[in-house]
Specification:
Blueprint lengths: L5 H26 L1 H8 L15 H28 L4 H6 L2 H35 L21 H10 L14 H15 L3 H11 L6 H10 L2 H18 L3 H22 L4 H6 L1
Helix pairs in contact: 1-10, 1-11, 2-11, 3-5, 3-7, 3-11, 5-9, 7-11, 8-9
C-alpha cells in the first residue's frame, strides 16, 4: 500500500475543508431560512412586508429592538476577539460604533418629532376649545394616538407588562467564537437590504430618519470580505473543534431567536394598535 506523503495529506485535507467552507454559507442560508422567515413576519419587522402596518411608532420599536441586538452582538464579538485575536478582522467589519451612533441619532430625531407632534396636538385642542360656545377649555378624554410616539420608557414598560412568555432573553450559544461569527453573519446579512429599506422609508415619509439603515448599507459592502475572512479562518477553527461549522449554524439560529423574542416583547398597547 502506498503511503501518502505529508504534503499530499495536507493538500487533501485542505481540499476537504475548502469544500466544507464553501458549504458553510450555503448551509447557513438553508438552515436559518425558517428562523429568518419567522423574524420577517414578527412584529415590528412585519411593517416591511405590509405597508398598511407601517407607523412611526412601529418604526421606533424596530430601532429599539435593533439597538438591543447590536449592543448584545457587539459585546459578544468583542469578548470573542479578546480570547481569539484571529477574529479582529471580522470584529472590525460590523462597525458597531457607527451603527449604534446612527441608531441614537434616529432615536433622538424621533423623540424631537414626538415633542413637536405633541405640541401641535395641544395647540389644536386649545384652538378647538376656544371655539366652543361657552369659551371653556375642552378636555379630551379620548386622545388620538395616531401621531404620538412611544418613548424608550414606554417601550420598556410595555416589555415589563407583557403577559406573554417571561423567559429571559438568554440564548444557549455553543462557544464564544461560533457565537461571534454567527452574530457577524446575522449583522452583515441584515445589512444587505438596508439601502432598499432606507429608500422606501424616505419615499413614505420624508421626515423619517434613516441614519441607521444608511450606516448598515455601508456594512453591506463588507459582506464579501467577511465570507473570505471566515473561509480563511475556518480550517484552523475546524482543527480546534470539529463541530465548529454546526455550532456556527446553531448560534446563527439562536441570534434569530433572540431577535424574535425581542420583537415579541416589544408590543404596542392595545389602544395604540387600534389607532394605527
Amino acid at each position: 500500500m502506498i503511503k501518502l506523503s505529508q504534503a499530499t495529506k495536507t493538500m487533501q485535507f485542505n481540499r476537504e475543508e475548502s469544500s466544507s467552507m464553501r458549504n458553510l454559507f450555503t448551509a447557513l442560508k438553508q438552515d436559518t431560512h425558517a428562523s429568518h422567515t419567522m423574524l420577517e413576519n414578527t412584529y415590528p419587522f412585519s411593517i416591511y412586508h405590509d405597508d398598511n402596518l407601517f407607523s412611526v411608532k412601529t418604526y421606533q420599536a424596530v430601532l429599539f429592538v435593533m439597538r438591543n441586538f447590536h449592543e448584545t452582538a457587539a459585546r459578544a464579538v468583542h469578548h470573542a476577539k479578546q480570547n481569539n485575536t484571529q477574529l479582529e478582522g471580522i470584529a472590525s467589519m460590523i462597525n458597531s460604533d457607527a451603527i449604534l451612533t446612527a441608531i441614537s441619532e434616529d432615536t433622538h430625531a424621533l423623540h424631537s418629532m414626538s415633542n413637536t407632534s405633541n405640541t401641535q396636538e395641544e395647540n389644536a385642542h386649545t384652538e378647538k376649545s376656544q371655539l366652543t360656545d361657552t369659551g371653556a377649555f375642552y378636555k379630551d378624554t379620548h386622545p388620538t394616538f395616531h401621531n404620538t410616539l412611544l418613548s424608550q420608557c414606554d417601550i420598556k414598560q410595555n416589555i415589563k407588562q407583557d403577559t406573554h412568555a417571561k423567559k429571559p432573553l438568554d440564548c444557549n450559544f455553543k462557544s464564544p467564537t461560533s457565537q461571534a461569527i454567527a452574530a457577524a453573519y446575522v449583522w452583515l446579512g441584515s445589512s444587505m437590504g438596508a439601502n432598499i429599506i432606507a429608500r422606501r422609508l424616505a419615499a413614505k415619509q420624508k421626515e423619517i430618519p434613516t441614519n441607521y439603515y444608511q450606516a448598515m448599507a455601508s456594512c453591506a459592502k463588507r459582506w464579501v470580505s467577511f465570507k473570505q475572512d471566515v473561509d480563511a479562518l475556518l480550517p484552523i477553527l475546524v482543527l480546534e473543534n470539529s463541530e465548529v461549522i454546526t455550532n456556527i449554524i446553531d448560534d446563527a439560529n439562536a441570534w434569530f431567536e433572540y431577535l424574535i423574542a425581542l420583537g415579541n416583547r416589544v408590543q404596542l398597547p392595545k389602544a395604540l394598535q387600534e389607532a394605527n
